[in-house]
Structure formats: C-alpha cells, structure tokens
Amino acid sequence: MTLTRVPVFFLAAAAALAAAKTEPPTFHKDILPVLQKRCQDCHRPGEIAPMALLTYREVRPWAKAIQEAVVSKKMPPWPADPHFGKFTNDRSLPLHEIELISAWVAAGAPEGDAQLAPPPSQFAEGWLMPKPDVVFEMPNEFEVPASGTIEYQYIVVPTGFNEDKWVEIAEARPGNRKVTHHIIAFTREPGSKWLPDARPGVPYVPRKGDKSEGGPSELLVGYAPGMEPMILRAGQAKKVKAGSDLVLQMHYTAAGAAATDRSRIGLIFAKEPPKERVFTGNATNSKFVIPPGAAAHEVKSEITFQEDTKLVDLMPHMHVSAGRISCTGWCIPPARRRPSCGYRATTSTGSCFTTWPTSWRFRRGRAWSAPLISTTLPIIRPTPTRPRKCAGATRAGKR
Ligand code: HEC
User: What is the Å distance from ligand 1's center to 10 Cα?
Assistant: First the structure.
C-alpha cells in the first residue's frame, strides 16, 4: 500500500510544480484579492499610507518594494510577537500569501486578464469602519499654531440621545492627521460634575491644579496614528446613556505651519441589546525612574477588577522607544499566579510602539474569575542620553 501511495503523492506534487512554472500568478487573479483584504484599508486615497494600491497601474511601480516589505514583514504593520497570543485583528500575512507575492514579482509582476479581477472593494469614504449610523463633528474648527506646545483641549459635543444607546462599532477620525496626535472620546452622563465650565463646542483647557469633581463616565473610542476603529463582537456593546455628552480630549501637536482641525466620531449601534457590556479602562504607570546605566528596566502597572471580567483586548502604549513590551495577565490569588491563564505579547526589539498603537483583540474573551490583576510589563531600554523620538511621540509619562 505504502509503495503505491508514495509515487502517487510525488507525481501530484510534481504536477503542481509544473503548473506553477508555466502559469505565474497574475495581478488581477491572484494579487489583487490579497491587496484588497490586507493592504487597501491603509493604501487608498485619504488613508494613512503614502500611496494607493488599488489598480495595476498604481501597484506595478511598487512591485519590488512590496515584495521586500512583505518578506521582511515590515508590511502589513503588526508588531506583536507571533509566539504569544492569537488575535482576531492580526494583520500579518500568512506564509502562502507572502510566497504568492514573491512568485508574482519574480515572474516580472504580470498583469494578467482583467476579467478575472474581483470587484473593487467598497469603502465608506472617509472612514475605516463601515458607514456610520450617526456622526458627531466638532462644532468648530480648532486652529493649531505653527509652533509651541498645545495643552490638551476638551471639546463637549452633546449627543442629543433621548434614549440609552448601545454602540457596537466606533471610530474617532481626525480632520487633519498632521496635527492630531490623539483623540479620546469620553462619555459624560447627565448630571456629571466633570468640567462644569466647558461650553458645548468651545475648546476648553482645565485650569492647572483645578480638580473639578467627577470624571468622564466612560472611554468610548480613541484615535492615535495607525489605530483601527473599535469593532466589538455581536452580543457586546458600550452603553451611552440618554442625554450624555461626548467629551473629546484632543491632543494637537504643532507641525511647523498653522493648521486647522475638525475631527469626527462615527458610531454604529447594536441591532439589539447586547449580552455583554464592554468598558475600557487603563492600567497606567507614569511615575518611575530608570536607574542610570541599567541594561533593561521593568515597569509594572496593574488594575484590579471587582467582579468576574472577560478581557476583550489590550492596547500597550508608551511614549518613548521601548526595547520590548510584554503584557501578562495573571489570575489571583497571588499564590496561583501563572502566566498560562493570561497572555503575553511582545513587540519586536527596538520598535517604536507609539507608531502603531493597535489594540490586540483576543480570539476569545479571556474569562477570569474575580478579582483579577492584569499587568503590563514594558521593558524599557536604558536611555543614557535622550530617548529616541518616535513618530508622534510626546514626553514620557504624559498620556
Ligand atoms: C495599517 C496600515 C497599513 C497596512 C494594512 C499596510 N500598509 Fe503599507 N504602509 C503603511 C504606511 C503608513 C506606510 C509608510 C511607511 C511607514 O510609515 O512605515 C506604508 C508603506 C508601504 C510600502 C513602502 C515601504 C517602504 O519601505 O517605504 C510598501 C511597499 C507597502 N507599504 C506595502 C504594503 C502592502 C503590500 C500591504 C499589504 C500586504 C501593506 N502595505 C499594508 C501602512 C499600511
């Protein structure tokens, strides 16, 4: 049996190779579907990448660069270490697609028959998410000066919701990416005492030392360069209570020329009330000292949940270049701490985490019994002189 099977197997393999030799992959049939699925979110007009990769004419001059970028795994950007954790939003290319692109470039990047092209991808223009149900725009343009440090601006945008709403998908969208380092859209419930002097639409900077009572009700959605929309699973949603305001915390950075920005928040509502309510919190540590000359330095930050909690995603973030970041969740009691019930994700050495502050979404929510401690462990390279500036980075310690 074995003897007869083996030659058959070899024959089949040889036939496949021969077919591959005579018929190299072509743009329309083989490559375009990959670009549509993996690249065009960023590589289309108006999005973050410098060139569009929609048509053969656009792609052909980049063929060699595309091969290099996918083989070296520089593109698509995905800094998580593949050895730890599996994520639903993993952007990295499977090996067979890298090989396909390589084979296509090696064959001279042929165009092939345009009849075999898939239909062009449909995008909601101006959004990475599908078409929003509702859009909130800053009522006025904010004028960003050419130079200097700009304090965080808080802009209140009333929702006008007259019933509680459940949000399943949300995107914060800068009007002008050059000067917008981050947007955080918080919700503020009716009756909140947070920022009582801020008037709708008028940029507001809290006075130094002013500890006005209360705080945001919840973080709804954020933006930083390269970040994806918030996309929750069916059955999960964030709540925005009737009569709430959105409060946009805007971090602008001067870019050498005066500019304006008018950012927007897009929301898509859950079709039915969710089974699980989703919250975003943070485990921040902004008070630490790296001893001079340290080879590496570990910084911990923790958060303790008060009840049974499922972790949906994590977004490691730091503001100077990190040697490595790993995140580990542990169950407590401490005697039973073991990384196996959590997850680890590590950035590649030397990467600038601030450039791609992606949320890593777990394949399955990690169900943990209460209470839970989740710990992030950024391991920071020694900084003997000055830390290397990452694109879009600000001072260390400021969120
Ligand atoms: C999340 C957004 C994003 C995705 C997805 C993405 N790119 Fe890019 N790409 C960028 C940005 C931004 C740049 C500009 C260079 C930089 O900032 O690193 C870039 C640059 C490039 C370059 C120029 C490389 C260089 O060395 O300068 C190539 C080639 C490229 N991308 C190919 C691809 C291909 C092919 C895919 C899909 C397989 C892809 N990209 C997916 C954002 C993206």
Answer: 39
| Cβ of 50 less than 6 Å from ligand 1 | yes
Indicate whether residue 77 lines ligand 1 (CB < 6 A): yes
- What does the DSSP 8-state code read for residue 48? S
Same domain, 128 and 269: yes
- Same domain flag for 45 and 109: yes
Same domain, 71 and 178: no
| Section 276-291 average pLDDT | 80
Query: Which residue from 75, 78, 97, 353 has its CB within 8 A of the most atoms of ligand 1, so it is best to mutate?
Result: 75
Max mean pLDDT among 80-84, 240-244, 283-287, 298-302 falls in: 240-244
First-last CA distance in the chain: 66
Q: Give tens-digit pLDDT for 152-205.
A: 999 999 999 999 999 999 999 999 989 998 999 999 999 999 999 999 999 999
* Domain closes at, from 59, 81, 116: 116
Of all residues in the chain, the percent with pLDDT exceeding 70 is 67
Long-range contacts of 78-83 (CB under 8 A, 24+ apart): 78/358, 79/347, 79/348, 79/351, 79/353, 79/356, 79/358, 80/345, 80/346, 80/347, 80/360, 81/344, 81/345, 81/346, 81/347, 81/348, 83/346
Residue nearest to atom 23 of ligand 1 (CA): 65
Q: Which atom of ligand 1 is nearest to the CA of 101?
A: 35
